[in-house]
Amino acid sequence: MLYSEIIIIYRKNYFGEMQITAEKITAFYDLPFGGKESGRFRLSMKLLRQLVGRKRLYPEDIQELSRALYERGFILIDMETFFVVLNTRSFASYRRLNDSSLNVSGEKPA
Predict the structure, then answer these.
(1) Is 87 domain-assigned?
(2) Residue 32's Cα: distance from chain center in Å?
(3) What is the pTM of this model?
């Protein structure tokens, strides 16, 4: 087996693993826990490692999981000691910063 074939097989397994983990995480969004019926939540690095089934998670792992969640309409925020999961719909009603907002004082920020 060639090295390139091994890499392709690894990437397929790896991608599938993060897709499965993303499905597990999004399922929690609609479950009642922590005193709320549903919605945003945080999870520890330890719990995330358990969900993925690994002893260690690397930046590439977090990035791949973040992409898998984003494809499902969720955002993963890395807060260094824990992660926050939000639905992208949460941001739809946020106010927008535009050019006229920058000129409130007559000067643009440096």
Answers:
(1) yes
(2) 20
(3) 0.73
As a whole number of angstroms, the distance between CA 66 and CA 96 comes to 24
Full domain range(s) for residue 29: 21-91
- Strands 74-78 and 82-87, bridge-based pairing: antiparallel
Q: Is 80 left (phi over 0), alpha (psi -120 to 50) or beta?
A: left
Residue 2: inside a domain, yes or no?
A: no
CATH number, domain of 26, equals 3.30.1370
pLDDT above 60: residue 83:
yes
Whether 9 is covered by a domain: the verdict is no
Q: Rounded to whole angstroms, how far apart are CA atoms 25 and 89?
A: 17
- Could you tell me if residue 4 is inside a domain? no
Q: What is the pLDDT of residues 34-57, one digit of tens each?
A: 888 888 899 999 999 999 988 999
Q: How far apart are the C-alpha atoms of 103 and 57, rounded to whole Å?
A: 44
User: How many domains does the chain fold into?
Assistant: 1
